[in-house]
Every structure is written in structure tokens, then in C-alpha cells.
Design brief:
With 320 residues, the protein is mainly α. The chain has helices at residues 3-15, 24-54, 63-74, 83-108, 118-148, 163-174, 183-209, 221-231, 234-251, 265-276, 285-316. Its main location: mitochondrion.
Length: 320
């Protein structure tokens, strides 16, 4: 059965449990706890991805060479650069993503039947991605990327001493809007990612495990991780150019009164294509695929346990 057709079937089956909806705050809590676990496990891959995307001169020969070079020249702890803003960012991002998606899904449900259409699920995911991109993702990623692109072992020689100092320096030198550099490609990337991820996760849960929201069943962690991993694979391939452009826009500064190389999202795409070739727009794709699908697996492995236990204790039992 084609995947798109199966999504419709899964949607119809899920609608039979629509009365047993989970409160948005529970979705938010489950997402935030999952985000903490994901950040702790996968920060080194994110650092390597950022360095590869910022590498214009070919200093790094690949993922392993990049990681080894960072460890050798800056110390192993450098692979966890930006962990504090990254962990905080993921915690807040997943709380907002999961909570807002639940609220938007409720708004898109048919008021008479309580059914959520496939389009409603996609739009809910896109809306959640846009909200997280504007409110949470962009300012935290600007700080994270500025910290990650710094090279050196001596803290006193680094421009940014930490996440708070970095944010203050950006506001002082570039204005408050400097924390929202690269917001346009971030909105496009996150909106597309989340519309695909929520739709795919729901479909894989039904397809693989016959699990419907509100049915009182709790997936085993490995089942949730498989669904989350599969749901997290398509986004990085589709949104690679947005991610590269986002990183470049966030990394550039006006230090010394210089002129910015990239004027915006479209200009950055054109410039990268002309100067570095088409494939440069997918720089860092492999480390993204090494980080995002496993990250989604970790996050959903935690979140589904919390959501499932809530379903079984407060929703399923109440209908018995």
C-alpha cells in the first residue's frame, strides 16, 4: 500500500480514539524531557556538522577527520562546545513543538466528529515548526553556532566566553536583531521538517505497531525509537540547503564594521551555488543524518513512554 494512502488509513483509525486526547501540557513535558536526553547524547555530532558547514577551504576531510582534528587541536571537551545553549534550546524547542502541535491539531479537528484530516496534521506540524523556529530555535542556534565556530584551546583568546556572554556581545555589536540572523531559512527548515515528522511518526506507529493515540497502549522504547528514527530521515535530505544557509547567515558577523557576505536567504543560496557548486548546499548532510534520525529516536523513546503511561493511567482506565 502506498505510504500516502496508508497515512489516510492510519488517520481514519486514529480518529476512533479522538475523544481520548492527551493534554498539550503533557505533550510539552514529554518533549522537553526527551530533548534533554537527546542533547546529552548527540552534541558532538552537531559540533562536527557545524564545522563542516562553515568549512570553505577544505580543512576537514570528512566526519572522522573533523572530529579527530577538533579533539587533537582543541581537546575532547570541544566536541561539547555550546552544550548549554543546545540542551536548553532542545528542551524549550521540544516543549513548544509538542505542545503547540497538540493545540493546533485540536484547532484543526472537525468540531462535530473530532476527526483530524491528513492536511490538518500536516498544517499543525508546519505551524509548530514555524513557532519553534521564531521563538526558540533561531536565537539559541545563533549563540550555539558562534560558540562552535571558535577555534583554540585558550579561553582568554576566544571572543565569546560562554552562551550568556555571547548573546550579550551579539546584541551589543549587531543589535537585538542579530540573535535572529538566518530566521527565514530556519522557518522554512523547521516548518517542513515538523510537518513531515509528525505525519510520518503517526503513520509508522500505526503501520508497524498498530498503535493509536488514546488507545491505552504503551510502546516499548525500541518500538518508539524505530518509528522516530524512520520519521526523522526525510527532513534532512529535503531541507539541507535551508540548514546550510541558516548556518552561514548565523555565523557571519559585522565585526570591525565589515560588510556581510550574505544579504539574505536567496542571496546566500545563489552565492554558495556560484562559488562552491550545487553539492555545497548539502554540506554537513551526513552528520545531520547521523544526528537528526537518532535524535528523534531518542526523543520519541522518552516522550512516548511518558505519553503512553499518561494514556494508560488517566485516559484508558477512565473509559473502562
Amino acid at each position: 500500500m502506498p505510504f500516502t494512502t496508508y497515512c489516510d488509513v492510519a488517520q481514519d483509525n486514529t480518529n476512533s480514539y479522538s475523544k481520548n486526547s492527551i493534554p498539550p501540557y503533557m505533550k510539552a513535558i514529554s518533549g522537553s524531557l526527551g530533548g534533554i536526553m537527546e542533547a546529552s547524547c548527540l552534541q558532538p555530532i552537531d559540533v562536527i556538522k557545524t564545522r563542516l558547514q562553515l568549512d570553505r577551504s577544505g580543512n576537514y576531510k570528512g566526519i572522522l577527520h573533523c572530529g579527530a582534528t577538533i579533539s587533537r587541536t582543541e581537546g575532547v571537551r570541544a566536541l561539547w562546545k555550546g552544550l548549554t545553549p543546545f540542551a536548553t534550546h532542545l528542551t524549550l524547542k521540544y516543549a513548544l513543538r509538542m505542545g503547540s502541535n497538540a493545540v493546533l491539531q485540536s484547532a484543526f479537528k472537525d468540531p462535530e466528529t473530532g476527526k483530524l484530516s491528513g492536511y490538518g496534521r500536516i498544517l499543525s506540524g508546519f505551524g509548530a515548526g514555524v513557532l519553534e523556529a521564531i521563538i526558540i530555535v533561531t536565537p539559541f542556534e545563533v549563540v550555539k553556532i558562534r560558540l562552535q565556530q571558535q577555534r583554540g584551546l585558550s579561553p582568554e583568546l576566544l571572543k565569546y566566553k560562554g552562551p550568556v556572554h555571547c548573546a550579550r556581545m551579539i546584541i551589543r555589536e549587531e543589535g537585538f536583531r542579530g540573535l535572529w540572523a538566518g530566521v527565514a531559512p530556519t522557518v522554512m527548515r523547521n516548518g517542513t521538517n515538523q510537518s513531515a515528522m509528525f505525519t510520518a511518526k503517526n503513520a509508522f506507529d500505526v503501520l508497524l505497531w498498530k498503535k493509536h493515540e488514546g488507545d491505552g497502549r504503551v510502546l516499548l522504547p525500541w518500538q518508539s525509537m524505530i518509528s522516530g528514527f524512520l520519521a526523522g530521515t526525510a527532513g534532512p535530505i529535503c531541507t539541507g540547503p535551508f540548514d546550510v544557509v541558516k548556518t552561514r547567515l548565523m555565523a557571519q558577523t559585522r565585526e570591525g564594521g565589515g560588510v556581510l557576505k550574505y544579504k539574505g536567504m536567496i542571496h546566500a543560496i545563489r552565492t554558495i551555488y556560484v562559488e562552491e557548486g550545487l553539492l555545497a548546499l548539502w554540506k554537513g548532510l551526513l552528520p545531520r543524518l547521523m544526528r537528526i534520525p537518532p535524535g528523534q529516536a531518542i526523543m520519541w523513546g522518552v516522550a512516548d513512554q511518558i505519553i503512553g503511561l499518561y494514556e494508560r493511567r488517566y485516559l484508558h482506565h477512565s473509559t473502562l
